[in-house]
Every structure is written in C-alpha cells, then in structure tokens.
Records
---
Amino acid sequence: MKDLDTHLEALRTARAIAADDADWADFARRARAHAPRLRALLSTLYGGRSDFETQYADVLATAADAWRARPEELKGLDAARERDPRWLQSNGMLGGIAYVDRFAGTLEGLRTRVPYLKELGLTYLHLMPLFKCPEDNSDGGYAVSTYREVNPALGTMDQLRALAGDLRREGISLCVDFIFNHTSDQHEWARRALAGDPAHRDFYLIMPRAEADRYDRNLREIFPDQHPGAFTPMSRWPGAVAAPDEWVWTTFNSFQWDLNYANPAVFRAMATEMLFLANVGVDVLRMDAVAFIWKRLGTVCENLPEAHLLIQAFNALCRIAAPGLVFKSEAIVHPNDVVKYIRPDECQISYNPLLMALLWNSLATREVRLLRQAMGSRFVIPPDCSWVNYVRCHDDIGWTFSDEDAAALGVNGYDHRRFLNQFYTGRFEGGFALGVPFQENPKTGDCRISGMCASLAGLEQALDTPGPWGQALTDMAVRRILLIHGVILSFGGVPLIYLGDEIGQLNDHGYLADPHKAGDSRWVHRPRMDWEAAARRHETGTIEARLFEGLSALIALRKAQPCFSGSGDLRGVDTGSDHVLGFVRYHDTGPLLVLANFSDTVREIDAEVLRAQGLMYPVLDLVDGSTPDLGGGITLAPYQLRWLRPA
Ligand code: GLC
Ligand code: GLC
C-alpha cells in the first residue's frame, strides 16, 4: 500500500504543479486530515477487490482536480464555513423551496424574483431538480439524464452558475438535489447498458427474473401504482441488448434506474458529478432517497449500514475538495432510522419528517400527545447538525411516526394512520381537509397524502362555504396555517417554506389533464406560483395579506431573537393540556416559552406552568405584543401561538 504522501506526490508531479504551490499545499493539508477516513470507509466497502488501490487512487485524483477547478470565491466561503460549522443554525436562517419553471419560468426569470425571496426573508433556496431529464415524464426532474446540463427549458449551466453567484451575494444559499440513488433511463450510462456494454451494465442492477424475485420478497413497494415490486423488464426498452428474462432495479418509476454502489466505479463516477455541482456554486446538496442506496439480498434494502458508509465517504471527499458543501438528508423513514443519517461526518442537516407528520396529526386530532412525546426523545441530534423543519414540500405526507410510540399512548398505529388518511382525504365527517390519496396500496392498506398546506388546513373548504360560516372557517384555516408555520419557526434549525404556502395557494387539479402526471397525485400540490395572488400580499383583508404578513411578522420576530438559533436545544413542557403544545428555548436573554393551541376552542394554561419555566410576571408575548396578566393563568384562543418571554 502506497502511503498518502506518495499518492499526493504522484498526483502533483503528474499535474506539473510546483512543489511550493500554496493552493496545492492547502489541498494536501485537507487530504492529510480527511483521506485516511475516506480510505478506511472505501476499504470497508470495496477493500476486498483486487483493484481497490487503483480505485482509491482515482478517487483522490478526482478530488485533486475538483479542488484545482474550484473558484476562488467558493474557496473563501469554504474557509468561513469551516470556522463556523453552525452557520446554518442562525436564527436569521430561513429556507424556501420552488420549482424553477412553476415559480418563475426559467432561471433568468428566477433572477427577477430574487426581491420577492428577500422580502420574505429567505437565506436558503432549494430549487427542485433542474437538470436535463426525459421530456415526457421525469418524476418532476428526479430522473436525471446528466448533471452537466441544465434542462434546456429552464436555462443553461452558465445561468445556473450566475444565479448561484447572485444569490450568494444576496445572502441566499443555494440547495439543489443530488439524486444519486438512480439515474434516468436516458442517462448515457443507462444507454450504454442498454446497448449491452458490460462495464455500464455493471453500473445498474440488472438480473434474471428469478433473482429479482428473491430480492422482491423483502422489499417495500414505493410506487405501487407505477409497477409492482421493485423491478422493470429490460424488454420494455425496444432494442435493449439483454437476455429475455432480465429485469432492472427501479425502486421508483421504471425510468429511474437504481445505481449499483457495490461497484466502486459508480462511487467514483457519482463523486465526480457531486464535486462538479459543488464547483457550480451549490451550497447544500439535498441527498435524495438516502435510505435506498445500498442493497443486500435477504434484507429490506433500506437503511443498510453500507448506505451510511457510502454517504460518509462522499462527505469525507467534500471535506477535502469542497469543504463548504453541506449535505441534507432526505430519509422519510422510521424515526429511529432518520436520525442515523444526521452526523457532522454524514449529513449535517436533515428533513424532519416526524415533526411535519405530527403537526398534521395534531391538527387532525386537535391533540398534541404524540408530538409532546416525540419532543421528549425524538429530536435529539449532534450539536453541529440541524433539522430542516417544514410543513409541506413537493412530496406526499407519510405518517412516519413509530408504532411503539403510538402504542405507549394507547394508540394503534395502523388504525390511526387509516384515520389520518380518511381525515386528510376529506372523507371524515366534520373534517376540514381536502387532500388527495397518494399511492394507496390495497395489499398493505398503506396510503399517503398529497395536498397544498392551505387545502389541507381547511382554506379550500372554507372558500367553498358561503356566508358568515365560510368567513369563520376561513379565519380558522388562516390560524391553522400560521400556527404550524409558527411552530417550525420556533423549532431552531432551518425552517423551510414551500413557496406558494405563504400566500395560501390551493390544490391544483390541472395535472389530471396531463397523461404523464395524472397517475401521480403529488402534482396536485405543485401549482404554478400565482403572482397575481402574490400581488395582493399587502392588500389589507385579503387572504394573501393575512398569511404573508402574518408569516412575515413571525419571521421578523424570529430573526430578532437569538434564542431561536441552535438546533435541538429545546425542551418540551407539559402544559397540563392535551391540546396545547409547549416547549421552551433558552438563551442568555432568558427562557422563551412557546405555546401552541392545536384546538378550535379556547384553552387555559395554569400560571404554574409558566412559573416552572422561570417566567414570572411581567411576561411579554412577542407574537401579539401583549403583556398578559398571569393572575389566573394564561388563555389561548383557538389555534393561537404565543412566544412568551420575561418582559
Ligand atoms: C425523493 C423525492 C421524490 C422522488 C424520489 C425519487 O423521495 O423527494 O420526489 O420521487 O426521491 O427520486
Ligand atoms: C421516497 C421518500 C418518500 C416519498 C417517496 C416519493 O420514498 O423516502 O418520502 O414518499 O420517495 O414520494
């Protein structure tokens, strides 16, 4: 085994870099700090192969070339972020999600919308997949044909680079997806595999039906509406050079081919793409579908230990060649498994699907018991890491709470999920939600929910209801929307707004007219941004203004309160009511108690609850500016949110 210095010397001389080159010295320093870990990880995954040394040397070479190509401005940012790994935890941080085409038409169009993003206070923008992809159906861009080209309908790579720079100068970090579990069937690697090239067939998981059956026995069906099991017959592609009974692994849609990470060439190829994106100026990579990236026969092929090692290897490589880059985990799985991806050396930040699901659960049940229980144990993560807290995103809502947690409260998980699905698809008498079922699976009884925040929170139903009753329902819906956003704004970490929700955009059933989308109800919550509605955001009395201004006020308060920085450092508080969520955040400025009434009736909280948190009279409610008299306790109106601090 050649030692690291020998490797580095060989790399330097091959590139004719002077021995005293300062930039190279910087690279060598990083390599010495992180390459041993990278090597150990790769050796656990691939060490048994005879070509391991060559594979490892190639990975290091990839890192060296990426570092050399990294723009100076980004290297400056790298240094700043290394000094301050908690930059994402600032109370100034606020994220937004948008589809380029639906939000602004094109990348150029998006540049003209930057003032809107700033008005809302965004410092982080997740642009949904914007790479070249199949034209008819691409799973909303999640089938990538190449990372080197932007979808021509949206713009060019140079425009993306320019936009990243613009956003950076405006204080907005750019997040894009790294869809590394699969490529589209039109990716060059897949085309070569279809042409029978053995090296590229080995990039994917192509196998005889009998073998696929052995895997399928243990797999969960992710998109049962698209195809049963996890495989698609190769015969589906006309002219494919494959044996008649061969199938390819496609966890999601048939046109999304899972990559074979047991092959180190796949790791290196994707690592090269990752570092390319880093150098375009991306700050955060949303690591798509992390749970699925490693497969082993006889297992469910989700959350395997190797999946973690693989992400850690990608992470170690970033520490060498693009140290400012942050990984966001997209693991929408059991809460025990979600947290395993969150580590400084794996994914530094992660979606918080449990909080999301439990916020909706609390609205449906008007009770916070499951959420209060989760508060006690489920949200603890390492100090340099952050949750990304959201109420809606482009995907469905899955009820990913743990059955054991539910059972501890006397709730049967299976039945309760059925109730939630009934409730959110509008089939529950007296309910307020108008969602749509997603991937209802009659075999398992499983079902998830699609829908825009406003439609799920009752606004659509309210607007369909005439007269004063409709007005009352509207009022409740607006309160619900502000309440759950208020919770994610007080939770620490990175709050993430699904753009369109800030003005209460409703479900859009237009997707049903498009045969490529009709089978995927998630399109119901991917409407075009309604800029005419957005223009009403300051017209007093409009729904848009009530939501946008209500939200803006909370955002401004959050930005002014250092106690909202940090991540997991909040503590659940028993409010004595099953309807009122309570948690406290600490800072030098004293405690801040968050109270959130998830019911549609007035609730009283005993003054003792406040005193136990060190809140004596006088207290100030930051949200409405009042100094409530604590004499007989404190009152919360329906869906009221209070942020209480010593006055
Ligand atoms: C992730 C995305 C989802 C997509 C899937 C396959 O879960 O969020 O939209 O369908 O990955 O890429
Ligand atoms: C992946 C995600 C899950 C989502 C699906 C796409 O399975 O983990 O959240 O439901 O992709 O909808």
---
Amino acid sequence: MSEYTFLKGSKDWWRQAVVYQIYPRSFADHNGDGIGDLKGIIEKVDYLASLSIDAIWLSPFYPSELADGGYDVADYRDVDPRIGTLVEFDELVEKLHSKGIRVFVDIVPNHSSDQHVWFQEALRSPKGSKERARYIFRDGRGDNGELPPSELSSHFGPEGWTRVPDGQWYMHLFTKEQPDFDWSNREVHDEFLKTLKFWSDRGVDGFRIDVAHALVKQLEPLPTRSSYSLEVMKDDGTDQLFDRDEVHEIYREWRELFNQYDPPRVAVAEAWVHPHRRPAYATNDGLGQAFNFDLLTSAWESAAFQKVIDDNLAFADQTGSSTTWVMSNHDVIRHATRLVIPAGKEGVTFDAENHWYVNHRLDGDLDLAKGLARAKAATLLMLALPGSSYLYQGEELGLPDVTDIPSEQMQDPQWFRGEGKFKSRDGCRVPLPWSASGSSFGFGPGGSHLPQPKWYSRYAVEVQDGTPGSTLELYRSALALRRKLISGEKLSWLPSATGTLWFEREGGWSSITNFTDQEMELPPGELLIASEYISAGKLPANSTVWLKLS
Ligand code: NOJ
Ligand code: CA
C-alpha cells in the first residue's frame, strides 16, 4: 500500500487530494428546466468516480437570487429549490462517500444576499437597531445624507455603498445585492459557526472560504477606495479592508469546531493577498490551506512556472501545510483558451482600478489546437506537483471558453456593471456537453441556461469516453496513475534544456514539460504517460511526459 493510499483514510487525506469543482447550475440538469441540479450530479457520481478524484467542491447551491451566480446567499443552511432539497444533498454525499469521494462546500462569509432574512429584517428595522448592526449601515454625507458615507467603489463597480429608503447606506464590496456583514458583531460569528456545524454534521468534509481575507474591516474612519489592486493593498496586516491580522482570530475559532470532528473538517481559503501573507491562512490552527492562484496568472514559460512552484512549496513549508494548484475555475477563462491568448491580451490580470480578473475581450482567431496541447501539458505538470490540485468541471474535456455569448444572454454582474470593460465570466460557466447531439448536448432533457455553441458536440463526454488519445482519457489515466505514484511531498529539479522543466518526485518518477513550440529531446526513462503522442525519443512541443527514472 503506497503512503498516499494510506493518507486517504487518515486525517491528512487533503494534503495531496485532487478536488474537482462543480458549478452546480452548469453540471447536469435532471428535470430539464435548463438549470443543473443535485439529482443531475447524483446521476453522474459514477462518472466522477471514473476520474479518480479525491473530492468534489460544490460552488454555492444555496437559495439565491443569482445576482452573482449564487455567491449571493439567501439562506446558508438550505438548498435552492431550483437545485434540489436537503434530502437530495444527503443522498449525494452518501453516494459520493460510498465511492471514496469527499465533499467540500462553499462558504460565503463576507456578504449575504440582500434577500437573506437578516438583511430583510435590517431593512425593516430602524437606524441603530441590532438588526442593522449585523451589516454595515451608516449615515450619508452632505446636508441631507445624500452622499455616500465614503468614497468607496465596489469590485463590480460603481458604488460600494447603496442607499435604503430611510436614507441610510449599507456597504458592499461586491454587487449591491451582496451586503457585507459586520464581523465585529458576535452574532455574525455565531451564525457562521452554526452553518459550519450544520454542514459538518451532514457529513461535509471540507469548506472553500470565499474572499477569506475581507471579513474584518477597520471602519473608523470609513474606508475610501477606488482600487482593490494588490498594489494598493497594504501587506502588513493593517489595510482597512483586506487581510487584516485580526481575521485569523475568526479562523482559529472555526478550527476549534473543525477539530471536533473525526476526521477533522478541512478548509481552503480564497484569499487574494500578497503572496508572503498567504501562509497565515494555511496554519494548522487556522483554515489549514490557502489557494495559490499563481499558475492562473503565469505566462506559459518555463522560468515563470519554476518560480511559482519554488515560491509556493516554500510558503507551504513555512506552515507545514501543503500547497494548492489551480489552472481553471468559475471566475477565469478556461486554460485551454487562456494559454494561447496573445501577450498583451492576457486572459487573467488584475485591473488596477477594480482589482478583479480582467478577461480581455478576445478578438481575432486563437490557435485552439495549441491551446489544448498547452492545457493538457499544464495539467499533467500540475498533477505531478506536490500538494493538492483543483480541477474545474469540463477541463477534463479540454473545453475552450465560450467567447461569443450574446450580451443579452450574459448573466455575470461583472459584465453588466463593468461598463463593457470586462469580459463576462459566463464563458467558463456554460453547461457541460455530455452527448454529441440532443437537447442541450445531454446536459438535460430541456435547454441550457447559457447558450451552448455548436462546436460543443466535438468535446462531449460521449465522444471522448473510451476514445484513446482523448483529453478525458488522458485525465483519467493521469489521475489513476498519480494515485499509484505519489508517496512523499518532495520535489527535486533535474537539469534540462532551456524552455523545459524537469523534476523528480520520491519513488523515482519524474515529469518533464516542454514549454516551447519546438520538439525537444526526451531524456531516457520508462514512459509512464504523455500529454501528446510520443515517437522516437522526442518530447513534442507544448507537452508533458512522466518518466520512471532508471
Ligand atoms: C469569489 C468567487 O469565486 C466569485 O465568483 C464571486 O463573484 C466573489 N468571490 C464574490 O463572492
Ligand atoms: Ca434542473
């Protein structure tokens, strides 16, 4: 039994887990209303098991008005009736567990939906009431309070304050339908402990914590800000809005709760902070792990990848945690597209004004064949790294982003509020193609809440399932092999040609990636798996190969 198989059953199961992100509305639709649902996921549990993943992470499935794709939660302890019921949730968890797949759910603690009962109570209650004190209500400036309490913009633009009928204003870092909680209020702490206990008691194994660095804010004087860029975010724990040192007190409280379970519940922080501040979110008396998004913002270059890998392994060492790797998620352009966006039109950069992902509008043709080759190479490299890997639904099909959704069918507030500056995130949220034909390409018996392009049929699960050389079969083989190969958590670099990266893992296996557009020499060794067809000792352009070293 390898050390890894042993870890699976232990409290350390998460250290090198592969977690597959499901965006529930776009995964599989059982009842044909065009919206993915829990029954749809239940029907695909065998498919998930066929991927040899260790866990799934469910993006929000809670009741929501969908002002921000479900990240506006109206009730943290229920399922949106369009998506399912708590009974179905329990069934899903049980089915997944029976296949050895663990479950993460998304916790959104910075803000609720404006439809949340607390916010509705706050609206009905007077200024200064305990109902308003759960959020951040303030009087406006100007003679009649007609000016916002401070000059604050929101991530999705424009204003970070919205006025209510009695004249007060409330703060929201995201859309106006996402009022921020006031975490200096003990009631807010207790409410989230209740929510974490609720899902832990239902058998949930882990939590993904949304905007984990924003909860604690310094509100005296009120923050003013027109940019959320890392360049203006202080990196010493004293920024007014983000990454304040006190935020970790919250997570220490959560950890006490997590440790009451066997195995302890785990968590991963979504925290866009200065890299050297990331380890603080990954301590074992805090959340335990933090997302590292550096590969998302990295150019397809060996030196850039090597630096990201070295830096993040060093950060993980600081706390004894393991790092996380992400190539795609529901917020960014899928990596099969992103990796061929020409320089200067990068898919994911920070916008200095808005501190949000800038998905540049793509004009002109992209070389999607090269994009797929790079995506497969990047994934194989990622899966060979120590730490846990997060996959996003559909990447196992090699899906490119959908870049031509008509404006009137877009759903993403980033599109509507961004005044045309940002590409919408809907392109990576289009429902999956399960079959080559039929209504919504097998997504469900009805339509699809976002339009699917005709070319989706080529990428369908049905087409790739059992087909040698398909992206799906590559993912399946790589994930199954990873389970057998992984033992320790060390990586040692091996010397290799410029434009390539070669590293060894314990147990005498290695991964080599060619980042260039030219074929290179393949070092000697037994071929374990390759992202492209290999012939005559050559390492193809834009490819990764795992080799057993002799
Ligand atoms: C990060 C989530 O990933 C994103 O989808 C969402 O818009 C923001 N947090 C706000 O909750
Ligand atoms: Ca449905």
